[in-house]
């Protein structure tokens, strides 16, 4: 399995509080991604990073911010959590595209509940 | 973005073959992936195929690609109880990094 660690694995918090999820990789891959998984929607991309301090928005980025200060760490922050952000969040990593498909490898996920 | 569609549920008897279907819309060269998700776990890459291939086989798994109809299938031979999971089809264009996922097919293996 790819060396990807997500923390925390579970979190329950209240509406309006800030929340930060962490993804740590040991593969030295350039690309890192944050997805959310909701029933009936598959996985939807929130933000991604293509290098240290290089990030961009995905399809469902509203209400989320990210930071990448080191190759191995990619943080996802909910500045003021809302109940609609209750979801399972997955981090993924991949090497540079264009060579042999470069599939994304996923962490085990963080289950976030916002009450 | 590209659309990827899958049927939502499949029930199969243990020992039979399972066939999970997927359709996609991107007409350019593309990579197509199959991931497996067991309860409470992340997505595990099963296999992938480039759009210039028709078939790929890996042990009990066979991927078939019909480029004309933009149809992808995953066949699992001799289905076991451990194959019960959600299976996701995904695609990405060549030299791109963004994956487009289907909603996932829940496979239930019955005795």
Describe this structure in words.
The complex is a heterodimer of chains A (115) and B (111). With 115 residues, chain A is mainly β. Chain A has strands at residues 4-7, 10-13, 19-25, 31-38, 42-51, 54-57, 64-70, 73-78, 87-94, 105-106, 110-114. In chain A, the strands form 2 sheets. In chain A, strands 2, 4, 5, 6, 9, 10 and 11 form a 7-stranded mixed sheet that branches. A 4-stranded antiparallel sheet of chain A has the order 1-3-8-7, with no helix packed on it. Chain A is globular. The model of chain A has no long low-confidence stretch (mean pLDDT 93). Chain B is built from no helices and 11 strands. In chain B, a hairpin with a 4-residue loop joins strand 7 and strand 8. The A-B interface holds A 31, 40-45, 48, 50, 58-59, 90, 92, 94, 97-98, 101-109 and B 1, 4, 31, 33, 35, 41-45, 48, 50, 88, 92, 94-99, 101-104.
Number of helices of chain B: 0
User: In terms of per-residue confidence, which ranges of chain B show pLDDT below 50 for 5 or more consecutive residues?
Assistant: none
Structure summary, number of beta strands of chain B: 11
The number of helical segments of chain A is 0
Mean pLDDT of chain B comes to 91
Amount of helix of chain B:
under 10%
- Relative strand content of chain A: over 45%
SSE inventory with pairings:
The complex is a heterodimer of chains A (115) and B (111).
Chain A (H helix, E strand, L loop, with lengths): L3 E4 L2 E4 L5 E7 L5 E8 L3 E10 L2 E4 L6 E7 L2 E6 L8 E8 L10 E2 L3 E5 L1
Parallel strand pairs in A: 2-11
Antiparallel strand pairs in A: 1-3, 3-8, 4-5, 4-9, 5-6, 7-8, 9-10, 9-11
Chain B lengths: L3 E3 L2 E5 L4 E7 L5 E8 L5 E8 L4 E4 L2 E6 L4 E6 L8 E9 L6 E2 L3 E6 L1
Parallel strand pairs in B: 2-11
Antiparallel strand pairs in B: 1-3, 3-8, 4-5, 4-9, 6-7, 7-8, 9-10, 9-11
Name a few traits of the molecule.
heterodimer; A: 115 residues; mainly beta; seven-stranded mixed β-sheet; four-stranded antiparallel β-sheet; B: 111 residues; six-stranded mixed β-sheet; five-stranded antiparallel β-sheet; 11 strands
């Amino acid at each position: 399995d790819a060396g990807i660690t997500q923390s925390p694995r579970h979190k329950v918090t209240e509406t309006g509080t800030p929340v930060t999820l962490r993804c740590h990789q040991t593969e030295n891959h350039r690309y890192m991604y944050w997805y959310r998984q909701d029933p009936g929607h598959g996985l939807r991309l929130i933000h991604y990073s293509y290098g240290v301090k290089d990030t961009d928005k995905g399809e469902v980025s509203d209400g989320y911010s990210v930071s990448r200060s080191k190759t191995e760490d990619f943080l996802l922050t909910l500045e003021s959590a809302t109940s609609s952000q209750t979801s399972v969040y997955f981090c993924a990593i991949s090497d540079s595209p264009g060579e042999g498909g470069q599939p994304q490898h996923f962490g085990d996920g963080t289950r976030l509940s916002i009450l | 973005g590209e659309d990827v569609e899958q049927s939502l549920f499949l029930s199969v008897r243990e020992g039979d073959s399972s066939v999970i279907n997927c359709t996609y819309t991107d007409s350019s060269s593309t990579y197509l992936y199959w991931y497996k998700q067991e309860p409470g776990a992340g997505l595990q890459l099963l296999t992938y195929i480039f759009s210039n291939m028709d078939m790929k086989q890996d042990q009990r798994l066979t991927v078939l690609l019909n480029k004309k109809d933009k149809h992808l299938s995953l066949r699992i031979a001799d289905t076991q109880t451990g194959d019960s999971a959600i299976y996701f089809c995904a695609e990405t264009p060549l030299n791109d990094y963004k994956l487009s996922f289907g909603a996932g097919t829940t496979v239930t293996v019955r005795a």
